[in-house]
Structure formats: structure tokens, C-alpha cells
Amino acid sequence: xxxxxxxxxxxxxxxxxxxxxxxxxxxxxxxxxxxxxxxxxxxxxxxxxxxxxxxxxxxxxxxxxxxxxxxxxxxxxxxxxxxxxxxxxxxxxxxxxxxxxxxxxxxxxxxxxxxxxxxxxxxxxxxxxxxxxxxxxxxxxxxxxxxxxxxxxxxxxxxxxxxxxxxxxxxxxxxxxxxxxxxxxxxxxxxxxxxxxxxxxxxxxxxxxxxxxxxxxxxxxxxxxxxxxxxxxxxxxxxxxxxxxxxxxxxxxxxxxxxxxxxxxxxxxxxxxxxxxxxxxxxxxxxxxxxxxxxxxxxxxxxxxxxxxxxxxxxxxxxxxxxxx
Length: 325
Fold this sequence. Notes:
single chain; mainly alpha; two-stranded antiparallel sheet; 15 helices; 2 strands; globular
């Protein structure tokens, strides 16, 4: 049986490689802090396997998380390395390949979908090939590996360091994003903490008090808009989801109005993603691209996305109301 643990180890080893590259970056006066940040992050991914299997204590992992957070928060990472290719080289390659440049990126979701729908049903010796609950995640990792092979075949990086270009460019991109690379994980954990603390129940009591008792549309609209607003505040739909679902999604829309739980909760997440388009809190989506592309207006992506976000949010609310019950 194949589980997703290999993917976490792969990520851990990649971050350790990033640490090695960061330590070698002579033009970064804070390279020691950067190397410590990425190295501890990578070791944390690997060590967590033993914590989950209950063969190692959890406190070193918790201490690692605290140190990583302090290094990121105190600005100990410094600057990223320069690109391994020149602007002219990248422009020449882009002109030559055209739309074929998108093939590796498109392969990732395609392979993940194949794993989640087809490979997930494959059995060996009466047991499923992929561990329960991991087909999509395993497919995502496999999709990245397939995309990497295809990208290498398309680009054909020359020279003795050709195969290492992927690692070097991946390291450079990770260092350019910096601590913001961890935001999705951190904010998702924040959402779980809010849920465990009962924030969702308290929000539900407030919303129940102001909601018209028999108004399905009002409940649907409040759930959709609430998902978007909480995502704007928290920066991640995964953090807003447990709060709003515990407040309205499950007790009101599913239990009280007997809605289709799968459709309602899935579309609810899409409502949250509309909020992601509108918030600087989602730095890895909205701020980091502006920095990497050297845009004059760092909030340019958000300003361009707000009209689309509002339109898509309205469509999601309509879909939930018309087909969720």
C-alpha cells in the first residue's frame, strides 16, 4: 500500500537542499539564518513521520516550529539568490516553446485527477494500492514528478549542471517567497484552533439570532458571504471553512434545511476562495507574485481580481441555493 508519507519526505529533503544552497549564497549576509530556517523546516517534515507513528516525542517538532516562526518573523532569511539564467535566455526559450510552456503545469492537476479517480480504485492482493484518504495527495506528488520530467525534456538545460537547474531554480523561488511559503499551513492550523476553541459555535449563535428563521436564501447568502469575509480576514479559505461550517454550513444548511452536504460544503469552499482573491493576507497568492514580477503596485493583483471575485461569489451563492436543496 502506498501512502503519502513519501511526499512529505520528498518535501523535507527539498527544503534541506534549499538550506544548502542558502548557506552557499555569499552575497546574502543573513545566509546562516536562511540556512537554519530551511534546514529546520526540512527536518521537521521528515521527523514528523516518527511523531505520527508515536516512536519519537513531539516536543522537538514543536520547538522546531517555534524557532522557524521566530526566524521568519525576525527577518533572518535575507535576500534570495539570483536567477540561474539571464532575462534574454528566458525570453528566447519562451518564444521558442510558446504555449508548450504550460504543458508541465497542466500535467500536475491531470495526474492528480487520474490518481484520485482511477488509480484510487486499483487493488493489489485484495487491498487498495493507495492508502485511504491519500489518492489525491499522492497524485499531486506524482504529478509534480511527471511535470518535472516533461519540463526537463522540453527545456533540455545544457551543461554539466543541467539536471541541477530544477533544484537551483526551485531553491531560488522558495527563497524569493520566503516565510510566506508557509502561510497556507499556518493559517489552516489557525482555523482548526478556532474550531477547537468553539469560535464556530459562538459565531453560529450570533448568526442564528439575526437570521430569519425560515429564510433559506438568507442562510445561503450569509454562509457564502461569511466564507468570503472570514477568508479575507484570515487569509485562507481552509482557515475560514471550519469556523463558518460549524456556524452555519452544517447546523443550518445541512441539518435544518436538509441540504446536500457535499455540494454545499464544496461550493462554500469556492466562496472562500473568492475572498482569497481580495486579501493581502493571502500573501503567497497576491503579494508574492507582485514582488516576483516586480510590479509597481504591490496590490495590483488584488485590484484586478476584485470584480471577478464578486461575480464568482454571486454565482456560487446561486448554485448553492438552486441545486443544494
